[in-house]
Amino acid sequence: MKYGHFDDKAREYVIETPKTPLPWINYLGSDDFFTLISNTAGGYAFYKDARLRRLTRYRYNNNPLDQEGFRLYVREEEKAKENKNNKPLIWNPSWQPVKTELDSYSCRHGMGYSIFEGQKNGIKVSQTMFVPVSENALLYHVKIKNTTKEKKSIQLFSFIEFCLWDANDDATNFQRNYSIGEVEVHGSAIYHKTEYRERRDHYSVFWCSRKVDGFDTDMDIFNGPYGSASCPDAVIEGKCRNSVAHGWRPCASHQLNIDLKANEETTVTFGLGYIRNKADEKFVALDQINRQKAEEMMARYDSDAKVEKAFKELRKHWDELLSHLQIKSSDEKLDRMVNIWNQYQCMVTFNMSRSASYFESGMGRGMGFRDSCQDLLGFVHIIPSRARERILDIAATQFVDGSAYHQYQPLTKRGNLAVGSGFNDDPLWLIAGTDAYIRETGDFTILDEMVPFDNDESLAQPLMEHLRRSFNYTVTHLGPHKLPLIGRADWNDCLNLNCFSEHPGESFQTTGPSEGPVAESIFIAGMFVKYGKAYEAICRKLNLTDEADNCATHIKAMEEAVLKAGWDGEWFLRAYDAFSKPVGSHNNEEAQIFIEPQGMCVMAEIGKETGEAEKALNSVHKLLETKYGVTLNYPPFRRYHLELGEISSYPPGVKENAGIFCHNNPWITVAETVLGHADRAWELYRKICPAYIEEISEIHRTEPYVYSQMIAGNASPRFGEAKNSWLTGTSAWTFLSISQAILGLVPDYDGLKLCPCIPSWMDGYSAKRLFRGTELNIKVERANGNEKGLWVNGEKQKANIIPASKESKAEVLLRI
Ligand code: GLC
Ligand code: GLC
């Protein structure tokens, strides 16, 4: 069953009922100011960091769901006379939280904006929400139309609830928080200034473009004692109390009394802004904050024309971002994913890493080291300059010995001490991300950038030295089988071979020693071969021949170690535990086979010539694949294994325990193309691809326009149900699998390589690719008896690589 439809021309997903299986959300904002917004206008806003600078409050795990958001209430008194119970008609254009049945409803989630349209009793309200490019504010442009032939009087109330900045503290430290809330009200602008008097240099402002007929800033007064967002006293009575918060729970509501003639439409803009002031410019008088910057901000949007212009600029911004790759094939679902939604999700994961979604509270982990490095693979072609910046930020959290902080806070860019380091795959992802950046841009100068270790400037070294230490970290941390030591965990955070967590509440990842001298990972071995080769290639490009030769020796030794000690007969082993017992072997009772080493080792081409790669993928197909995707391991764990950790803590069929952990599915897709299995690769791509499973939204439940981290596997009674949508490495990896492995547009150091591995039903496709400043108009077709090869501007090329050039345009034909 579907709950909406794709509108590809507008680049929107149109939700037709507010009653989706779960809140279906969108992300607004592209620089520093962000908003999560659901299809009923639930959500919250923050500046840079969802934990440390949260502007509005959100209660995860609330009951009912998704109560806090960017609310508008419409109230019609006239109705009271008709109603027997004498109650005014009250409704929200986006349905929640009052949940009055609407005469019509839609929510259009687009690129960086969401438009809600609700109609009731002849009044139509549309609410366009967006964050203008480079602005620290969320705008709602609201149109209210009387569609009837009679005059109407209505009231419109806005409502948001302020968060006292640090979301974690806000949700726990009530003995202090109930006493510190402060606001100032000036005309139609409500300023939230809690803690601004002392150490903060920032406040927020919630304004309205019209003169208000009342306001409230104290939530208990607005709602009334024991009142709630679904029936606030002020709205029921049609009268705000002009309350000025003093402690308790500061909020902001504007009351507008609006008369509309027959068919008349009127507009109003609301804005929520974030303002910073210099320490000596914070106040204009005792108790009077300096409002200058806020007033300038409001002036930027004080007419419909200005707001509409900002909206157009946002659309242009997205046109530009998405123009770097656009394809045309005979399959509209494929085009929609590649051209719109997959790239859009890649931008969101770039901005958020794994910090803030409807499943990630924004208070836990900040930016993940490995996560952000992988996200790069999906957005580097969109904004290479920001990829560059991100690589340098990430590298600055690396330790001198090549290991790395596992996470860092986006606001401070400092490594997160609580989790620390010891995830032994992390260093190699830095090579993966940097390599992708160089291939996209040809910019080797990034390697000369001086980058601190552990954020300590005095320890700065060129980025190249960081990569070298990443490579050497694996070389110097090998175990008894000459395979890489796993540390706290590798890519699978839940395979904790050195932790032995026995007591509830202990962290699975950080209990026990950060290093064990025995437990080894075949997954990291595969990674070392794959990204070690990338590092070797970079060395050769820099004419570091000795170093490159030395790398090749280590890589070869690793391949041998994998084929000798990491092969189980029909598939690659997963690991050796702390007692040197194999994990992921046919000899184990549970979890005999794992997906990760099959994907990574085959991508690294280990056993490609000698047949192991082929066998491994056959085993994946036979033992792990289901109709909704490939599960992580088989059989699932049914017992808790102290020596394996969190993976065996999950019920069978979910998350890392035999769930379809979508992130690693595209590894198998890519691996199939390494062996030239085009139809198999396509089949795997399609299985978890949102546009192809829109029809089963009722089962899948999360948004049909983005990937989720996990789909329940066949061992779960909820087989097919997805969780943790949006913030997942699935996005970057599926983008890589489709654009590079299947369609075959592969950035390389000297140009764009074309090596499609397209399914047999596909005759070819065309693409527009902006590569290093050149717009490439690419046509790929089957040779059908004609001469095969690559032509650039009519000239036949020696190899299938479009050389980087200074031309602004080139016509490319590839016949396969
Ligand atoms: C989560 C983490 C990621 C990890 C994966 C598998 O998605 O963000 O870092 O690799 O889980 O455990
Ligand atoms: C949990 C999740 C996993 C995530 C890890 C680290 O183990 O299952 O996906 O990577 O936490 O935060």
DSSP helix count?
Answer: 20
Largest sheet: 10 strands, antiparallel
Beta-strand content: 25-35%
Q: Please give the order of strands in the largest beta sheet.
A: 1-2-9-10-11-12-19-16-15-14
**Overall outline:** globular
Span between termini: 39 Å
Ligands bound, unique: alpha-D-glucopyranose
Q: What is the rounded Rg?
A: 28 Å
> Taking all residues together, what is the mean pLDDT?
97
Number of strands: 44
Helical amount: 25-40%
Low-pLDDT residue spans: none
Strand-pairing-aware structural class = alpha+beta
How is the secondary structure organized here?
Elements: E1 4-7, E2 12-15, E3 25-28, E4 33-38, E5 43-47, E6 54-56, E7 71-76, H1 78-82, E8 89-91, E9 104-110, E10 113-120, E11 123-130, E12 137-146, E13 152-165, H2 167-170, H3 174-177, E14 183-186, E15 189-192, E16 202-208, E17 214-218, H4 219-223, H5 233-237, E18 250-260, E19 265-276, E20 283-285, E21 288-289, H6 292-300, H7 304-322, E22 325-328, H8 332-352, E23 367-368, H9 369-379, H10 384-395, E24 407-408, H11 426-441, E25 450-453, E26 456-462, H12 463-475, E27 520-521, H13 522-541, H14 545-565, E28 575-576, E29 582-583, E30 593-594, H15 595-603, H16 612-624, E31 625-626, E32 629-630, E33 633-634, E34 660-661, H17 665-674, H18 678-688, H19 697-700, E35 708-711, E36 722-725, H20 730-742, E37 745-748, E38 751-754, E39 764-771, E40 774-781, E41 789-792, E42 795-796, E43 801-803, E44 809-815
Parallel strand pairs: 40-44
Antiparallel strand pairs: 1-2, 2-9, 3-4, 4-5, 6-13, 7-8, 7-13, 9-10, 10-11, 11-12, 12-19, 13-18, 14-15, 15-16, 16-19, 17-18, 20-21, 22-39, 23-24, 25-26, 27-28, 28-29, 30-33, 31-32, 34-35, 35-36, 37-38, 38-43, 39-40, 41-42, 41-44
Helix pairs in contact: 8-9, 8-20, 9-10, 9-11, 9-20, 10-11, 11-12, 11-13, 12-13, 13-14, 13-15, 15-16, 15-17, 17-18, 17-20, 18-20
